[in-house]
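Sequence only, no structure available. Ideas?
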Amino acid sequence: MSQIFINNECIACDACRAVCPTQAIEVADPIYSIQQDLCFLCAGYAANPNCMAVCPVDAIVYVTVHFETLVSQT
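Reply:
I predicted one. Tokens follow.
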């Protein structure tokens, strides 16, 4: 399962928040964060996540989450 994540390269320019159809991106300190329960990678809205397309510093990246890892941590 893939998710997107905002890394520490974020410059808090606010471009990603404006294009998120579900308002899943929130202001955090010092960088923005993505509420994973609201983010569905823009499925039905765009071919790729809108936020990744507009980020001027490429701070939004895919992260693969393995189900087995999640189960073993509980």
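Residues 67-72 form the longest helix (6 residues).
Hope that gets you unstuck.
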